[in-house]
């Protein structure tokens, strides 16, 4: 989602400022304020609402225009597979740490995602980074490419395995939440 722009009277191109208060954001910020303040009183909650409205007006975010359809079965598959990936990767990292191969080969892997949604890019990057043994070091929004540092990748087959894992994660995410994203070509199998 690129920011919208407008042209001023002097001919300069400026981003559009969003002045509408986004009430879900106000509710979330108020809740965070209330919890962090530690005083669960009506005065503290109202103070949080005032500060939250001010924050939303001073630092406006563009409205998210997306249709999300949560599919419970696909969401359960996404969460279950993510937990399995975390456990398996933790064991692999522990094995690599305790019994390191000599030499240890790591790789920087570029993975171009198949969807063009910034939300999907962000969610896939977060989920991939939470799995031990891989971390997203850079994300290119313009090309929807993630650059990952992956642990213990010995050859080109290992690089392709990392790509397949990211693409499979993206496919599971789109199946669980994607109503406005293009259907994915599922030519990549479920990587482990």
UniProtKB/TrEMBL annotation:
<comment type="similarity">
    <text>Belongs to the CPA3 antiporters (TC 2.A.63) subunit E family.</text>
</comment>
<feature type="transmembrane region" description="Helical">
    <location>
        <begin position="42"/>
        <end position="61"/>
    </location>
</feature>
<dbReference type="GO" id="GO:0008324">
    <property type="term" value="F:monoatomic cation transmembrane transporter activity"/>
</dbReference>
<keyword id="KW-1003">Cell membrane</keyword>
<keyword id="KW-1133">Transmembrane helix</keyword>
<dbReference type="Pfam" id="PF01899">
    <property type="entry name" value="MNHE"/>
</dbReference>
<dbReference type="GO" id="GO:0005886">
    <property type="term" value="C:plasma membrane"/>
</dbReference>
<feature type="transmembrane region" description="Helical">
    <location>
        <begin position="20"/>
        <end position="36"/>
    </location>
</feature>
<keyword id="KW-0812">Transmembrane</keyword>
<keyword id="KW-0472">Membrane</keyword>
<dbReference type="InterPro" id="IPR002758">
    <property type="entry name" value="Cation_antiport_E"/>
</dbReference>
<protein>
    <submittedName>
        <fullName>Multisubunit sodium/proton antiporter, MrpE subunit</fullName>
    </submittedName>
</protein>
């Amino acid at each position: 989602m690129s920011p919208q722009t407008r042209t001023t009277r002097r001919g300069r191109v400026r981003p559009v400022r969003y002045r509408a208060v986004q009430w879900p954001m106000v509710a979330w910020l108020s809740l965070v304020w209330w919890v962090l303040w530690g005083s669960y009183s009506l005065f503290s909650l109202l103070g949080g609402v005032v500060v939250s409205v001010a924050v939303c007006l001073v630092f406006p975010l563009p409205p998210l225009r997306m249709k999300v359809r949560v599919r419970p079965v696909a969401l359960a598959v996404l969460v279950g597979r993510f937990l399995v990936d975390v456990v398996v990767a933790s064991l692999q990292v522990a094995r690599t740490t305790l019994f390191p191969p000599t030499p240890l080969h790591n790789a920087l892997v570029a993975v171009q995602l198949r969807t063009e949604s910034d939300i999907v890019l962000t969610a896939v990057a977060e989920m991939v980074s939470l799995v031990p043994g891989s971390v997203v070091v850079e994300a290119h929004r313009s090309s929807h490419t993630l650059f990952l540092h992956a642990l213990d990748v010995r050859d080109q087959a290992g690089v392709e395995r990392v790509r397949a894992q990211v693409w499979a994660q993206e496919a599971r995410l789109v199946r669980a939440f994607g109503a406005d994203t293009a259907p994915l070509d599922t030519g990549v199998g479920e990587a482990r």
